[in-house]
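User: I'm new to structure prediction. If I give you an amino acid sequence, what do you actually give back? Let's try with this one:
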Amino acid sequence: ACRRMPFMGWVKAKRCEALACVEVNAEYGNIGVRNSKVPGESVWFDSEEWDVFVEGVKAGDFDHVDPGRPL
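Assistant: Good question. You get back a string of structure tokens that encode the predicted 3D arrangement of the chain. For your 71 residues, that looks like this:
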């Protein structure tokens, strides 16, 4: 389950070495996701949506996605 965190600001993955990074933020029980190159735009998920997404990532549901090819 999603941990309920107070506002923490935007955080990049520790592995991010370039400017093209995904950032996340937890605020008031919602999780925001944005591209570090376009900080003015973000997508927000409630905790249930976020939990389902993270479970899907861990289960490999998105492993077939290739950024070089359309879905």
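You can read the tokens as a compact description of the fold. Here is one thing that stands out. The chain has a mean pLDDT of 84.
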